[in-house]
Amino acid sequence: FLSCSGMTRSAAEVLGSSEYPYVDIRECPLDKEADEAIQTFTFSCRQIQELCRDFLVAADSGETAGQGYSAADLEILSDDSAGYVHEMRIGNTICTGDQFRDALSLPSSDFTITADQEDAQAVRITTVGKGHGLGMSIWTAEQMAEEGKTCEEILEFFFEGAELHRDI
């Protein structure tokens, strides 16, 4: 991924699997200086409803869904250890931050949601970082390389405990 919000994410936490113990939280404070590290987007609640329709709960009756959503219907419920949105609520639907990011084509699932002050039927979403946040930050890896770190040192930082093998 391009850059994170200052920390990479744990595969165990995001994927719910201990299959990748070497993909864990790493501090990347320089990522906050990355190009377009912080971006803000404005969406109408109707746009969000349309973009998220594939996973909105069928339990929302046609009547409820027909009424649409407001800013109060969008709530972040929990973050993961790196600060990315873990779960959020859209009306009666609980979804992951990654589902929401993908549906709205946001650059990151580390985001905040606030009511738009100028439009009562819109929200402002501010994201930090670019990408899923798992594994290696290209931004920090480039900074480490510029400081003279070797490829092996960079990989060891991001994937601690992984073994490198050269096939000849």
Task: Fill in the keyword field for this structure.
168 residues, alpha+beta, three-stranded antiparallel sheet, 6 helices, 6 strands, 26% helix, 21% strand
Radius of gyration: 18 Å
Q: How many β-strand runs? A: 6
Strand order of the biggest β-sheet: 1-6-5
Look at the helices and sheets and give the structural class.
Answer: alpha+beta
Low-confidence region ranges: none
Tally of helical segments: 6
Assign a percent range to the helix content.
25-40%
The 3D shape can be described as elongated
Determine the mean pLDDT: 90
End-to-end C-alpha gap: 28 Å
List the secondary-structure elements in sequence, H or E. Answer: HEHHEEEHEEHH
* % residues in beta strands: 15-25%
Can you summarize the main beta sheet?
Answer: 3 strands, antiparallel
What does the model show?
The protein is of the alpha+beta class and 168 residues long. It is 26% helix and 21% strand. The chain is built from six helices and six strands. The strands form two sheets. The protein has a three-stranded antiparallel β-sheet with strand order 1-6-5. A hairpin with a 2-residue loop joins strand 3 (85-90) and strand 4. The longest helix is centred in the C-terminal third of the chain and has 9 residues, at 138-146. The radius of gyration is 18 Å and the shape is elongated. It starts with 10 loop residues before the first helix and ends in a 10-residue tail after the last helix.
